[in-house]
């Protein structure tokens, strides 16, 4: 079946612009996660949804970052007034359930470059 | 707080030889442990996980991992490496006791290079 998809795959933004990154999780997956992966590093947690509820946003680095999943399926990560330090790969993952040992399935990521 | 350490930035092995990629973890309770592989310009692919029970876990593509509670380790192994195994490998942990807080904490990754 179809995996997690993300769009766009690549995004170049001028400093100060707003960007929106989209994630389509695997159908039927309850949980959705966003991670940020800087060059040469492991993914770092940003935020987590269970259905449409955002249960954890402790990893969002500033109030310029905002995520939503209004209907419990597709999610959008929005970054306002982008800064150079926002340049990274943004990974979306989904899992079948929550609160248990469910593995997360990752999309290919969106590589954001802020110039 | 939960954390993962992957002490080797890179592991080099000849094709056909056994490989080990090291991982140690820290959680306040019991762990769920995962290994993922990342190929260039692609997302992370799930390899295997430890939940409970048998300390030797078998996963995809002939990989296995050994959980050692006393050493807080979860090393990835394969009896015979292939050139196609060359990739970036990430270990991840989640504390069982965190309920619905399901986030994973990843290590910094180990690059595996398999040569002929």
- Compute the number of strand runs of chain A: 11
Please state the oligomeric state of the protein chains shown: heterodimer
Taking all residues together, what is the mean pLDDT of chain A? 95
Name the helix and strand elements of chain B from N-terminus to C-terminus, one letter apiece: EEEEEEEEEEEE
Through-space gap between termini of chain A: 37 Å
Mean pLDDT across residues of chain B:
93
Unreliable runs of chain A: none
What structural category characterises the helix and strand content of chain B? Answer: mainly beta
* Helix coverage percent of chain B: under 10%
Strand content of chain B: over 45%
Query: What value does the Rg of chain A take, in angstroms?
Result: 13 Å
Secondary structure layout:
The complex is a heterodimer of chains A (115) and B (116).
Chain A: E1 5-7, E2 10-13, E3 19-24, E4 31-37, E5 44-50, E6 53-56, E7 65-68, E8 75-79, E9 88-95, E10 105-106, E11 110-114
Parallel strand pairs in A: 2-11
Antiparallel strand pairs in A: 1-3, 3-8, 4-5, 4-9, 5-6, 7-8, 9-10, 9-11
Chain B: E1 3-5, E2 10-14, E3 19-21, E4 24-26, E5 31-38, E6 44-50, E7 56-58, E8 64-68, E9 73-78, E10 87-95, E11 105-106, E12 110-115
Question: What does this 3D model show about the protein?
Answer:
The complex is a heterodimer of chains A (about 120) and B (about 120). Chain A contains no helices and 11 strands. With about 120 residues, chain A is an all-beta fold. In chain A, the strands form 2 sheets. In chain A, strands 2, 4, 5, 6, 9, 10 and 11 form a 7-stranded mixed β-sheet that branches. By secondary structure, chain B is mainly beta. Helices cover about 0% and strands about 50% of the residues of chain B. In chain B, the strands form 3 sheets. In chain B, strands 2, 5, 6, 10, 11 and 12 form a 6-stranded mixed β-sheet that branches. In chain B, strands 3-9-8-7 form a 4-stranded antiparallel β-sheet, with no helix packed on it. In chain B, strands 1-4 form a two-stranded antiparallel sheet. The mean pLDDT of chain B is about 95.
